Amino acid sequence: MTDDLPLTHEDIAEITAILEKSGYRELDLATRRFRLRVAQGEGADGGLTQEWQWAGAAGEAAAETATMQADPEAICSPLPGTFYHAPQPGAPPFVKPGDEVGPETVVGIVETMKLMNPVHAGRSGTVAELLVPDGTLVAKGAPLIKLT
After folding, report:
1. Residue 83 pLDDT greater than 90, yes or no
2. Alpha carbon distance 94, 101 (integer Å)
3. CB 116 within 8 A of CB 86
4. In sequence order, what are the beta bridge partners of 100?
5. Whether residue 99 has pLDDT greater than 70
6. DSSP 80
7. 3-class secondary-structure state, position 64
8. Is the separation of the CB atoms in 53 and 63 below 8 Å?
């Protein structure tokens, strides 16, 4: 292993071989220096894909998340995942502009790893605007709903 690369080509080849022989389709490995994601493609000739993120890139993402959380009027996502306005397709939304909410009011759900996590308002106010469309992939800390 060299000083500038966290893994050698042999390391990656070994990880890839283990993934191909396993029943898993994807591996996501994160350390404080890097993140490596290896995934098998679809079909017989799908192959494998690799995705790297260096520690510097993770720091930039953290700074972006901190910027997103700076709006005191916004209810932000507690987790990364897919944000939904309603408990199921076709159901009425949890809230809409003009609705009064309290700290315990559920204003949406974030689906993460097939788990539905409620998003609570966290404070009292009036829903001014829904900032993201239903079914949007959001980062942790992303503003979802603006209160007044």
Report:
1. yes
2. 10
3. no
4. 126
5. yes
6. S
7. helix
8. no
Band the pLDDT of 140: cuts 50, 70, 90: confident
Question: What is d(CA 44, CA 49) in angstroms, rounded to the nearest whole number?
Answer: 14
| 119 bridge partner residues | 108
pLDDT of residue 65: 47
Q: How far apart are CA 58 and CA 94, in angstroms?
A: 33
Distance CA 3, CA 54 (A): 14
Read off the pLDDT band of 70 (50, 70, 90): low
**Residue-wise DSSP of 5-57:** -SS-HHHHHHHHHHHHHSS-SEEEEE-SSEEEEEEE-SSTT--EEEEEEEHHH
Determine the pLDDT at residue 69: 47
- Best CA proximity match to 79, nearest among 90, 93, 65, 89: 65
- Any idea what DSSP says for residue 134? T
Distance CA(142)–CA(132), nearest Å, equals 9
Q: How far apart are CA 101 and CA 9, in angstroms?
A: 54
Enumerate residues 6+ apart whose C-beta is below 8 A from 35: 28, 29, 52, 53, 58
Paired tokens of 52: 């790297």
Residue 108 has pLDDT above 70, yes or no: yes
